[in-house]
Amino acid sequence: MTHNISHHISTLLRRNDCVIIPGLGAFVATRREAALVGDVLTPPAREITFNPAMTHDDGLLAASVSRRMKISFEQARERVGAEAALLQRRLIAEGAVAIARVGTLRRRSGGRIEFRPEPTWSLALPAIKAVKPAPSFEVLEPATSAAAAGNKAVAVVRVPLRLRWLRVAAAAAVLCVLGFTLSTPIDITTARHASLAAPSFTPPEEPAIEAPVSPEGLELRIATAPEAGFELAVRPIQSAPKPYVVVVGSLPSRSKALEFIERNGDIAPLAIIQSGDKFRVYAADGDSPEAARTAANSISGFTSRFPDAWVCRR
């Protein structure tokens, strides 16, 4: 596999949870949550595995190659297919193939493929061993008292000196605040007393509004609402697209995607889905790649307007 395709795979895995090599399998990135096992705390991490059952072409790798090399989507798909076939031949001949910055694929007996990720792939922090906090007080040996009823053992607890000083300081602060409050004079002549009488209230004078005067020789007309009322235009909420969509444009922001729809919306109803930091404009969807392509080809003038359209799995 060339360095160019390897670079695309490693870059896409940083932003996507699944990258498929057509005809071979898929690299799947999963997040491992933090866990506490006994007294060992394992931090969260991002792990990568290989699933040989996912071999269909979702167009993600071909789209990345098309954007990077500035070639059409079909040309990029042919290049990716050729590289995938070369990778399969090397696995059969050599038994192992390394993908830069991702890991190594090995072919075992029976045609089974194993994957070992690069040690530097996961940026997880090392596990931390929890330390039990030291007690804030010391318990001495139980002491018996002859005066204790029933000869019950009494535990002697020694409070550290720092806790005693803290209590003394808190008590002194409370006494200072109480003394300051009691020693502050209060002028009761200006105090507001409770009363059963309702307070007096004088409403503000309403400002006089003068009727507008039209200039001499001109007639002043004031617009009023029509008798039939106003019509409220309601736009239906866009339903969620099906698993496969035909993408006609991939833009860096939503405003750019809306401008694209405004320029090309005359040929078909276009919509937007967000994938990572990209806003993709699609014209048709379907439950399978073939169904999505059939729906797009049924649009009049679709092929001539969008020759580089490609199928993407949400």
Protein described:
- Residues 145-149 and 230-237 have low confidence and may be disordered.
- 14% of the residues are buried.
- It is built from seven helices and 17 strands.
- The radius of gyration is 38 Å and the shape is flat.
- It has helices at 3-15, 60-69, 73-94, 161-183, 254-264, 289-297, 302-305; strands spanning 18-21, 25-32, 35-37, 40-42, 45-51, 96-99, 103-107, 113-117, 128-129, 138-139, 143-144, 153-154, 157-158, 244-251, 271-275, 278-286, 310-313.
- The protein is α+β, with helices and mostly antiparallel strands and 314 residues long.
- Helix 2 (60-69) packs across helix 3 (73-94).
- The longest helix is centred in the middle third of the chain and has 23 residues, at 161-183.
- A four-stranded antiparallel beta sheet has the order 15-16-14-17. It has a three-stranded antiparallel beta sheet with strand order 1-2-5. A three-stranded antiparallel beta sheet has the order 3-4-9, with no helix packed on it.
Question: What are the main properties of this structure?
Answer:
314 residues, alpha+beta, Alpha-Beta Plaits, three-stranded antiparallel sheet
Write the layout of secondary structure elements.
Elements lengths: L2 H13 L2 E4 L3 E8 L2 E3 L2 E3 L2 E7 L8 H10 L3 H22 L1 E4 L3 E5 L5 E5 L10 E2 L8 E2 L3 E2 L8 E2 L2 E2 L2 H23 L60 E8 L2 H11 L6 E5 L2 E9 L2 H9 L4 H4 L4 E4 L1
Antiparallel strand pairs: 1-2, 2-5, 3-4, 4-9, 6-7, 7-8, 10-13, 11-12, 14-16, 14-17, 15-16
Helix pairs in contact: 2-3
